[in-house]
Target: Pyridoxamine 5'-phosphate oxidase family protein
Amino acid sequence: MNQTDDPHRIQTLEQLLALFDTPGEASLRKQIDWLHPLYQQLIAASSFVALATSNGAELDVSPRGDPAGFVQVLDERTLLLPERRGNNRLDTLRNLIADPRCALLFLIPGLGETLRVNGRAEISVAPELLERCAMQGKLPKCVLRIHVENVYFQCARAIARSQLWQPASLPAGLPSAGQILAAMGEGSFDGEAYDRALPARQKATLY
Model:
């Protein structure tokens, strides 16, 4: 059956809105276009943020993490996010060259609420900004100066449903990084050697 003939497929805004209740006052009140001091407290306490970008054709969501406060508030409408060592694919940065729009989701371990920030980012290698983001004596490759357009907190339902912060043992049988790479390489990649070397390599190249 053609997707356009599927009677259960939602295809219009009117159909979508009919599924849900009207947003409550609190859901609308929490969104503002600047970094309220209380929102700044959440950012300062966050040690992990997911960063979403697009180049118009492709999408990317990348994790960013450091000790709490690694995303700095420059002023009420500007954030500073360091670009640390990574895999050099540069998916996020390539996207921002084409389209500066970005979205950030801040998580704080143990807290149910998350913080969502949308804005536009520029890539900078200004020495004073790099110095502000130094970690263990090493400068980031570059920094993202993010101009905030809207910001609001997300209620705790998703974290509660996922039990994200609840103590749990790691599920058995999950593939390692080496096993995944070996499978992608169809036998031409030594996954076991990769896994053996990975902990030391990650420790040596963290910053």
